[in-house]
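Reading a protein record of the kind used here takes only a little practice. These numbers are not coordinates but entries in a learned vocabulary of local backbone shapes. Here is one such record, which you should read through line by line.
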Amino acid sequence: MTILENIRQPRDLKALSEVELGELSDEIREFLVHAVARTGGHLGPNLGVVELTVALHRVFESPADRILWDTGHQSYVHKLLTGRQDFSKLRGKGGLSGYPAREESEHDVIENSHASTALGWADGLAKARQVRGGTGHVVAVVGDGALTGGMAWEALNNIAAAGDRPLIIVVNDNERSYAPTIGGLADHLATLRTTDGYEKVLAWGKDVLLRTPVVGRTVYEALHGAKKGFKDAFAPQGLFEDLGLKYVGPIDGHDVRAVESALRRATRFHGPVLVHCLTEKGRGYEPALAHEEDHFHTVGVMDPLTCAPLAPAGAPSWTSVFGDEIVRIGEERDDVVAITAAMLHPVGLGAFAARFPDRVWDVGIAEQHAAVSAAGLATGGLHPVVAVYATFLNRAFDQLLMDVALHRCGVTFVLDRAGVTGVDGASHNGMWDMSVLQVVPGLRIAAPRDADQLRAQLREAVAVDDAPTLIRFPKESVGPRIPAVGRVGGMDVLHRGAAPEVLLVAVGVMAPVCLGAAELLRARGIDCTVVDPRWVKPVDPALPGLAAGHRLVAVVEDNSRAAGVGSAVALALGDAEVDVPVRRFGIPEQFLAHAKRTEVLADIGLTPVEIAGRISASLAVRDARGTAGKTAGGPAEGAVRGTVGKTAGGPVEGAVRGTVGKTAGGPVEGAVRGTVGNAVGGPAEEAAGGGFDRTADGPGKETAR
């Protein structure tokens, strides 16, 4: 049995000798390479924190001591050392999350995958312990460029203000986020890391002092813990100490004993301490170290020996289509520039940066700054394209609203990983953008259905210079071209039945799903019209008129059902006095567990079979209401506004612009400007999975969604 297999909880580490610790580190790296190669995941960052994580769990008593990971993708070693060694379904349905997860272990405090937040959490936890008189340590491990985020510095400002509140900040300095970390702070850390004098002291300490009998290690540790006056002769760490933070380091993050020594010294301070550890992303795996782009930050399923992908090559990704087209646009227009937030290559801007190095900026993990800087660029006469993951744009909402939209700046936002992303779990699904951004005046949102539309709509977006535009697409391969058979207003008609009863509004990549549902409905004798609105905000003015010729409108989107495109369509129909019910299909209001994208879509009912079944059930309910909505002695339920329903004893005054349905012997259930149909004996109810909205300003009956 290996040493790793004998580690079931952190306290098992404490009995290991220095030789055994080295063997354990080697075993962990070998385990990670083979385990992550089988499933895909974050490899490079975790190879770099092996010794650091071992030292943390030897010094501190988790979970009594709270260890917070920022960013959370560097927590794989932490999982291994806290009893989670089954990586067979890592990031898969029913398997381990790729980030800390409270439901997995009491050792996981925050499910942190959005960077730069752990210091704020640590500040709050430390304050709570102070107020409640608790003991124990709060330790925040900040790495992979997280200190480039503004929230980290807001937290540091508050942490430093309380010089008597214990809190330990471990900076895992591997010089990178995805790519090399840039900016003023990165330059400062590089100075600390590379100052010649200090490096000579470290080298001398290791090579000479550690070989000195009896006192060698003591002297070496004393040098590491020397006071500010001595260290300033070698390295300008004053930035942190001037804030009020004790500074320890730089420490070799791959020397377990050195890291332990630094952490133990930090525990003796009665205030905030920053321990600066130097690590190497991809440590111990030559293919990762040789991969200059991101040191195997994330990998897919691959052969661990050759690093060749094991999954068959598919169609081009949405990201690559965008990346190629933005280069072509850049060659045609010298005013088009690009911004990203620490993800130049993942969002497809690598080729643009290579072709136009002076027209692209990586601002670090700082989406808020990216948006405001874009507003400045636009005001200065350029057209910036801000490319980020959809989930991370949530952070820049205020800046998009108040700096970009309010000032009518021509900025194009490109959201990669929109909709269900799957294996990265709840925090990475890009499922809120089309809901959150509905309230932004002047913003135009495009959702392309195929590669041709992405290229066309990107060009349409950068042509707008007096308002923000946004384009979203998912994390997957691009499907085949989906041709239009006609156009209504600005919408593409993808399918038109002979006598359509249902209008299917397909949002972006939901077009194939809607076409599949239309085929299933046609087999049941229900004809459909399928349209792609192309630009989903604002709602196309031609949509209400088109909807009026159908019995039911169904909007299908890979976005939250709450306040999404379906809600916007319902509002538009209501404003146009088109009383056709709207059925909304989308992502439920819940955080989705990690699984493959196709599995998640099936679980939440975004499949042709589910959609067709629910639509046919809705039409059946409406038909039942139409035949059962008679009162004793009165006419059938009126379908025209102002229709007067009869009670057994006399007429009831018609509801204002509403159709009033009666149950036999029951009270009128009509609402002003609402259509309420009742079956004999009581109101009909919607089946689970989708709300049934009456579009005349008020919702109808709904049950579980």
Observations:
- The first strand starts at residue 66 and ends at 70.
- The two ends are 50 Å apart (CA to CA).
- Residues 177-202, 223-236, 631-705 have pLDDT under 50 and may be disordered.
